[in-house]
Structure formats: structure tokens, C-alpha cells
Design brief:
By secondary structure, this protein is an alpha+beta fold. It has 2 domains: 141 residues, no CATH class; 249 residues, Beta-lactamase (3-Layer(aba) Sandwich), CATH 3.40.710. Helix content is 39%, strand content 19%.
Length: 428
């Protein structure tokens, strides 16, 4: 008596599984999520977090699936291939209707569903348990080089805006944020997302330099790199080995020119009151400069919690430009230092410094995964001093290419260009 009942169960189980897997992954998932959760399934899974529950143990998600479950649970009454075919058709019909309902409910309809399918990879699975319950599970994987930063230990004066625009007219910049202003008049020449608050990586070191110089500590004092100067957050290395000893002036020189992280860390540790006092001084200085979208938690910029906007960074560049030492150190091509162990030769991280076609008065580069490739510069173009800010650029050399494109655009008599995301209103 049991064998005739067991054989149709296997057939239905296999056909149901096959039909579900032939339906597009997105359609299957939306069918499972677009209708109310089955009451019994909700009760059994209420104590578990969905992201931590194994895929094989997820409960049915919609009323349509619940009907399919009832069909499968009544498999003992299936006596012929005709009944099996009906069960298969019901499953496929449920998935199709669910997908249509989901697409109709989403803005953009079919196009929105297609965009979602392109942006995500879906791994779906379905099975029929021995007790007759039909289980469906799916797993999303985000696609892209990195996820945007959603949390910082700081509340900006303006909301964090989207900063992943890919097109900006004829310039086709690869930087998500671009801002160019006339240094003398403050006139905006080019604006793309300048109000967005984002990680700024080693652009931070310009503020580090300002705080070091304002401390009035002797530039000839010798500083020693210790374990406290290691990067324990990103795990990056450094050419300055533990025990290296340099003057405060040399530490500042290679921090600005070559973005040496341990040098910046050592500078903050030797500040009166130590690193905590140094960080407080950095944020206090930002407030003094009117950089209200800016916050610092590290003297190096290796943390994504060091954030700012392009508009604030123009203020930082202006303040740093007033220091001849920062101008000279940041624009130096190369510099050799004696660490007490060996002589190290450093080179500038900015390729444009070595170009005779550029007249750069101050610069700083930066990079961490969360910030992308970053660059700020003061440069003179056609006898006009300008400040250029490029953030979240995609590609190792794209920030330099964007700087050149902006310069060519200015050379050609470019007029003010503003994007809607940068100002909150329609733009060009």
C-alpha cells in the first residue's frame, strides 16, 4: 500500500523542483516575497534572523506557495500522471502570477525588474520535504566593486547624497564627485555632487599637517616609529620599519609628498596630549574653517570614518595653501630620508607633479576602498588660480585623467557646469 503512494511523491517532488528552477531566479523570488507570509511558517521562523537561517530551513513565503504546499501535502491523493501534470502547471502558474504582481507594484515595471536582475545575482533553490512541506530559498549577492558607505560616526549638516553618477555630459569624468572653483573669487566653475559627504582617505593628511604646524613643536625634534603607529585597521604596510627615527620635519615631508601613513601616525602620537588630543585638534580646526560636513577619527585617513564634502575640502586646501611648508612638501617630486637604519628614497604619489604643462601649488592624493581614488589640487590655469577636488574616482589613474579633462575643458573656455545631485536643483 505504501509503494504506490511513494512513487507519485517522488515524481511530484522532482517535477516541482524542475519547474521552479526553470522559472527565472527573479520571478521565483518575487513570487515568494510579494504576498503575505503563511501564518504557520511565520510562527515557526519568528525566533530566527533571516540572514542567519540556513537556506534549506527557510519557510514558505507567500499565500501562493502555501497553496502549492497544500497541493504537495495532498500528494497521497495523486493517482495518475494527469494529476502530476496539474501540480506542475499550478506551481509554474503561481510563480508567473507572483512575478507579474511584483513587477506591476514596482515603479518602472518591466524595466525596473530587469535592472534589479542585472544588479544582483540570485541563487534560488526549492525542495519538497518528507513531511510534504514545500521549501523555497534564495540568496542575493550584490554586484559592484564596493558598497557605498552607509554609516559614519558623525552627522553631517546636510544629508549624505548619492555619489555614484556615471555620466556627466561631454567631460565623462570617472570621478563621482568633482568640484572646481576660482580660488580668488570663490566662483564655482564645475560642480558634480559637491555636497555629498564621503570618505576622503589620505586627503586627511592636509589637516594633519595644519595641526602639526599649529602646535609649534620643534621641527627638528626626532620622532621614532613604534608599534602604535602600525595600521591595524586596513593592515597596510609601510617602508618605515618599527624603530625608524626621523625629524618631525622629515615625517611631515614624506606624509604629504608620499602619503606615508606611519609618518602621519607618529606625528599625531608626539602631539602634546597624544593622539586623542591630536584628533580633537583636527576636528576643532575643521570647525574653525567652517567645514561642517567634516569629521576625523584618524590622522592617516585609513578609516572610512574620516569624511568630508568637496565644498569643505576647498576650504581645507585654501587653509593649507597659506603655509609655504605644506606647499613645498606636497609638491616635491622626490625626497630621501635617513631612518637611522637605512636611507629611503620617496617619490610623489601625484603623477601630474612631474608634468611641465601643470603649474601645481599644492596637492594631495588619497585612496582606500571605501573612498576610491581621490585628489585635491591648487593649480594655476591661464593665470587663474583654481582649486580642483576629485573624489571617488574609479581606476588607478582616472583621477589624474579627470584633472586633465577638466583642465582641457577650462582651456577651451568651459562655462559653469552644475549637476542636479550637487545642488538639489536641475542643472546641466
Amino acid at each position: 500500500m505504501t509503494k504506490p503512494l511513494f512513487l507519485p511523491l517522488k515524481l511530484v517532488r522532482g517535477l516541482a523542483f524542475s519547474s521552479l528552477m526553470t522559472v527565472a531566479g527573479t520571478a521565483l523570488l518575487t513570487a515568494a516575497l510579494s504576498v503575505p507570509v503563511d501564518a504557520r511558517a511565520a510562527t515557526s521562523s519568528a525566533a530566527s534572523d533571516a540572514d542567519q537561517t540556513p537556506a534549506s530551513s527557510k519557510a514558505p513565503r507567500d499565500a501562493k506557495a502555501a497553496k502549492s504546499v497544500k497541493s504537495v501535502k495532498s500528494v497521497k491523493s495523486v493517482k495518475s500522471a494527469k494529476s502530476v501534470k496539474s501540480a506542475k502547471t499550478a506551481v509554474k502558474s503561481d510563480a508567473t502570477r507572483g512575478a507579474q504582481t511584483h513587477r506591476a507594484a514596482r515603479p518602472g515595471g518591466k524595466n525596473a525588474a530587469a535592472a534589479e536582475a542585472t544588479a544582483r545575482r540570485v541563487r534560488a533553490s526549492a525542495s519538497v520535504e518528507p513531511d510534504g512541506r514545500h521549501r523555497v530559498s534564495a540568496h542575493f549577492e550584490g554586484r559592484g566593486r564596493r558598497q557605498p558607505v552607509h554609516r559614519v560616526a558623525f552627522a553631517p549638516s546636510r544629508p549624505v547624497q548619492a555619489f555614484s553618477l556615471q555620466g556627466d555630459g561631454a567631460l565623462s569624468l570617472r570621478s563621482s564627485i568633482a568640484y572646481v572653483v576660482d580660488q580668488n573669487s570663490g566662483e564655482t566653475l564645475y560642480d558634480k555632487n559637491s555636497a555629498s559627504v564621503v570618505p576622503i582617505a589620505s586627503i586627511t593628511k592636509l589637516m594633519t599637517a595644519l595641526v602639526v604646524l599649529e602646535s609649534k613643536e620643534p621641527m627638528s625634534e626626532m620622532l621614532t616609529v613604534t608599534d602604535d603607529d602600525r595600521d591595524y585597521e586596513k593592515g597596510t604596510g609601510s617602508r618605515l620599519s618599527i624603530g625608524s627615527t626621523l625629524s618631525r620635519e622629515d615625517m611631515l615631508h614624506i606624509a604629504l609628498m608620499a602619503s606615508e601613513n606611519r609618518a602621519a601616525a607618529a606625528l599625531s602620537r608626539y602631539y602634546p596630549g597624544g593622539r586623542p588630543a591630536f584628533l580633537m585638534a583636527m576636528n576643532r580646526k575643521a570647525d574653525e574653517l567652517g567645514m561642517h560636513d567634516t569629521h576625523f577619527e584618524s590622522p592617516t585617513g585609513l578609516t572610512s570614518h574620516n569624511v568630508s564634502s568637496a565644498r569643505d575640502l576647498v576650504k581645507l586646501v585654501d587653509a593649507a595653501y597659506k603655509s609655504p611648508l605644506i606647499r613645498n612638501f606636497s609638491t616635491d617630486h622626490s625626497y630621501d630620508v635617513n631612518t637611522g637604519k637605512r636611507i629611503l628614497a620617496y617619490r610623489s604619489t601625484n603623477a601630474l607633479i612631474r608634468s611641465p604643462s601643470w603649474d601645481i601649488g599644492l596637492q594631495k592624493t588619497g585612496f582606500i576602498n571605501e573612498a576610491g581614488e581621490c585628489l585635491v589640487m591648487q593649480a594655476t590655469i591661464h593665470n587663474r588660480p583654481v582649486v580642483i577636488v576629485l573624489l571617488d574616482s574609479y581606476g588607478k589613474y582616472s583621477r589624474f585623467g579627470d584633472a586633465q579633462r577638466l583642465r582641457n575643458w577650462l582651456d577651451a573656455g568651459g562655462v559653469q557646469s552644475v549637476t542636479s545631485a550637487g545642488t538639489g536643483r536641475a542643472g546641466t
